[in-house]
Write a structure and sequence with these properties.
Layout (H helix, E strand, L loop, with lengths): L1 H4 L1 H6 L3 H53 L5 H14 L1 H28 L16 E8 L8 E8 L4 E6 L5 H8 L7 E6 L2 E2 L10 E5 L7 E2 H6 L7 H10 L3 H6 L6 E2 L8 H15 L3 E5 L7 H13 L5 E5 L11 E6 L2 E6 L1 H7 L2 H21 L1
Helix pairs in contact: 3-4, 3-5, 8-10, 10-11, 12-13
The protein binds adenosine-5'-triphosphate and magnesium ion.
Adenosine-5'-triphosphate (ATP) binds next to helix 6.
């Protein structure tokens, strides 16, 4: 799938031949493994058949011999001849049941793992309308020997408007993954109103993640929006579209029944992102997490999306991850990640006055922006 989806890119870089070779090698590896399994299956069946048919044949020969030496009556001999093949049927069945049992064992392991999961504690969710998030000595690494986040501790009261910044690769998206529980920390925990997030069956009931990677499905705008709120009325859907300034475009292009092509290819990047935001707004969760929600889109869409994000201030907890440090200036708190640790925390003014990592990053970005503008003007 990966190779097929990236076929266009492979063609651009003329790497399709090398990739074909790799695919051939992988296919050959798969063929060898499959043949190994089939050989084992065939061998076990052959042994079973040998025992079953060989046993039946032996039984028949002995019965005939005994009949010849008059140790067995004629009826007794016929009975044994007729029953000999039947006698080993359970053995052959056992062989086939063995394979079914192995499949069952693999499936049951998954079922038991699911059954072993802790159920959410009833009654504790009531206070989650205004949840407070707490990170307690959170440590995480994709590989054991390379921690990405180290001993992170932090409290975010409900309604906080937080900017999460840091150089590329500092672990911002990793922290977003941990907050959504798509990644699990080995050490430490994230608590929501005192309850470990791992105890929750579905953290997405409280947290909505909006990132530039959000997917829009082939189908109508209505279907894509109702994914977040299946019982949403027409009015609610239009209101969400209005909030992200997509209502005019949708009205002019067939309304809520406008069909989106695969990957929403018939929308522009900005429209796609605005529609994703409209869907997120419909979900109405107390916590919103924006991970580069405005990257790779036009300036106008970017500004409009930022306005919507800012309008959530006070009513929801908002965590905004952005490369653009100027977008985080209005945040109540800015968290600065460096080498997997929370190196600074405060308002824009406080961090600028401190003159440490944040200030350095802001200066670098301003200089870069200045150079680019100078380059364009020149
Ligand atoms: N799935 C993964 N497997 C292994 N390592 C990963 C994985 N995802 C990220 N990493 C590593 O974890 C580190 C942090 O990545 P992360 O995506 O959290 O950074 P980030 O701060 O969001 O960066 P950016 O600003 O570029 O989005 C990086 O060094 C990256 O190489
Ligand atoms: Mg990231």
């Amino acid at each position: 799938m990966d190779n097929l989806q990236g076929l266009g890119t492979l063609k651009i870089y003329q790497a399709d031949e090398a990739r074909t070779q790799k695919m051939d090698e992988e296919a050959e590896h798969f063929r060898r493994i499959t043949m190994k399994v089939l050989t084992m299956q065939l061998n076990s069946i052959s042994v079973m058949d040998l025992v079953a048919y060989g046993g039946a044949a032996c039984g028949m020969l002995i019965a005939l011999q005994d009949y010849g030496s008059r140790q067995l009556s004629f009826y007794g001999c016929v009975l044994i001849l007729l029953c000999a093949a039947e006698f080993f049927i359970p053995l052959r069945l056992l062989g086939s049941y063995f394979h079914i049992a192995m499949n069952g064992m693999a499936a049951s392991e998954k079922i038991f793992r699911l059954l072993d999961q802790k159920e959410p504690t009833p009654g504790t969710h009531a206070g989650f309308l205004a949840p407070q998030l707490e990170l307690c000595s959170l440590t995480f690494g994709y590989q054991k020997e390379r921690p990405i986040l180290k001993d992170l501790s932090l409290t975010l009261p409900f309604g906080s408007f937080v900017g999460l910044v840091g150089v590329s690769g500092s672990g911002k998206s990793t922290l977003a993954g941990l907050l959504c529980q798509t990644l699990r920390a080995e050490q430490g925990m994230i608590r929501m109103n005192g309850l470990d997030l791992k105890e929750l069956q579905d953290p997405f009931e409280w947290i909505t993640l909006v990132s530039h990677r959000n997917h829009l499905f082939k189908g109508t705008i209505r279907e894509n929006l109702q994914m977040a709120k299946p019982d949403a009325s027409e009015e609610t859907l239009w209101q969400a579209l209005k909030e992200v300034r997509m209502d005019e475009f949708v009205k002019e292009n067939g309304g809520l029944d406008l069909i989106l092509q695969e990957g929403a290819a018939n929308l522009s990047g900005g429209q796609r992102q605005r529609l994703c935001l409209a869907r997120a707004l419909l979900k109405k969760t107390p916590i919103y997490l924006f991970d580069e929600a405005t990257s790779n889109i036009d300036q106008e869409s970017e500004n409009e999306i930022l306005q919507v994000i800012h309008s959530l201030k006070g009513k929801h907890t908002v965590i905004m991850i952005s490369h653009r440090l100027d977008y985080c200036q209005q945040c109540d708190t800015i968290l600065v990640l460096e080498d997997g640790t929370l190196c600074e925390q405060g308002t824009h003014e406080e961090l600028m006055a401190a003159g440490k990592t944040y200030e350095k990053l802001v200066r670098q970005q301003q200089a870069l922006l200045h150079d680019v503008q100078g380059g364009i003007a020149g």
